[in-house]
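Issue: copy button drops trailing tokens. Both records pasted manually instead:
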Amino acid sequence: MHSLKIGDKVIYPAQGLGIIEDIQEESYNGQSIRTFHIRLKCNNTLVVIPSNSAAEIGLRRPVSQKDVNKFFQFLRKCAVDISTDWKDRYKENFDLMKSGQLEDIAVVFKTLFLLSQTKPLSFREKKMLEKSRELIISELAASSCLSPDKISTRLDQCLSSCLKDLKMGPAF
């Protein structure tokens, strides 16, 4: 994370895409610490993160452009397990979202989307479905030359394909 510079795009777990606006040396308890000042795209909030804890927090670069197609292949093929107990399912999904890893967020997104096709989601799960979709779209749009609308359309097509496969194949 020390190779980050002003203007770089980063992914902040559970918040999504941010841009490094400034990097400063700041003094805390007599120690000089390098900090990243990151503007979050989703809500225009400025967060300050010490560089030595960036990896621990889960700060990372967005996936590469070549990984965008791999993402859609992963989303189409990843298996999901829909637990019957919503509390357990919510905790598992919450932990996956907190990881900030695109594959984990994809599993949450696909799980909740498929579940929503069979029964109404709770308020919390609806919010998580919306947030997972937003995080995926913002990262993939930042990683590719595709607009958020095109990414959204591609997501819908991918999930539609997953639904068709489920109706023809074994239950998820």
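Record 2 (pasted manually too):
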Amino acid sequence: MTFAFSPPKRTLVIIFLAVTALIFLLSTQAMATMFGLFKKYDVHLSPEVHGVITKEGKPVVGLTVFRGLTYGDDKELVDKTSTDNEGRFSFEEKNIRSRKPGSMFDESSIRQTIDVDYQGEKYILWYTEAIGIEPNKALTERLAKLYCDLNNSQDEFEFNSYEYPQAGYLVHSICRW
């Protein structure tokens, strides 16, 4: 088999192709980094939650409270706690790290649910979809003081957003503030 290039020229062509491939890979890496494809971002899923659960004004003791948090199409993160002798419960603030915010096509929202099962019936203490990856002041204010009576009707509440004035939050809940 004959080659179009002599051995010294063939070596130069191979070196040239290798250098070109290396430059391409490095520039692609730089572009990916520049657009944040490999960078991880802090995503605020939920602030601290503090609430009280009552039935006809009396504390419901030992009730298991579930919180589910989902960012975009990721797997739901679920944690649980129990009400104390005064019907109080709380959850810690929850943050994750994700590459999604670096994508120019990312429009993910954060889904927050807090619910309980009491005597075979499910009660929605909190359900909303939040926008953005930073803490939301309006949601933080309300989640700091949930007063939930199991006799309350589940209603929809609309809150203005401090961070995104053009948007608001729609919350489904039996709780009041």
